[in-house]
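#struct-help
A.M.: can someone run this one for me? Single chain, 282 residues.
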Amino acid sequence: MLAERNLILSVAAVPDTTWAIHHFLERQMSVKHDHSLLCNCGTTQDSGANTSQPARRRFMGLTMAAAAASGLALSAAPALAAAPKLLAPLPANTPDEAVAKLLAGNARYLRLRHTGSPRDFEMLRSQTAESQSPFAALLACSDSRVPVELLFDQSIGNIFTVRVAGNVASSVVIGSLEYAVEALKVKTLMVLGHTQCGAVKAALDNKDVPGQVTTLYSYMRTAITNTPSKGYRAVVEQNAIEQAKVLSTASPVIAQHVARGDLRVQPAIYDVETGKVALLSV
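D.P.: on it. Structure tokens below:
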């Protein structure tokens, strides 16, 4: 009986108890049934047609007890019962819905309530192997403290991301985002600046440095000019706004979709200390 009790407890400890019980049943009905494993009686008997009715009844009772024990185990472990599942996605059929979906993901990130799991990733890799249909495109900084998919709680295939130091809208960046708008039909194009941005600080200092880093400065010059004596944070926010304006005006493809009402270009800022994303007004 001790072995039976241990078996019940081991089944109860498995999160996917349905699978565990099914596997146990299948194993018991298809291989040699060893009494010594269950009751230490020292005898061995096939589990096929020769198995006695009492043994069968005891076997079924054991299985039912294991199922009951699993329920008790789950009720005693709310963390397991409340494990994140793949939720039904919020709609993103309009530009406003797409922005709302990003903000909802950031709210989950702030609450440490991520919805992904390894099983979800495996499924999503399979589903997106041949094609992609992201609902949003993001122009973000290359900074390692700005993990775009993570901070919006989005997984494989949801966000088309272009990252460059200072989140600047160069011609190459614009071309990449035009593809997301025209070919992939994203509903929002978010320009995400962030606090503690080294590229903005470098542009403000305006110092010569080796290599081609200084080529970034010109893209941020308008933001610096439009925010005199307002502080570093104001320049970071204004830079996101200015890059959003460039995207909306310098690209006929993007401008056309904005005019139709099927695309929203939205500047925003991410606080690397708090993790919060805040929308900015253009």
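A.M.: thanks! Residues 2-52, 72-87 have pLDDT under 50 and may be disordered.
D.P.: also worth noting: The chain has two domains: 2-81, 95-279.
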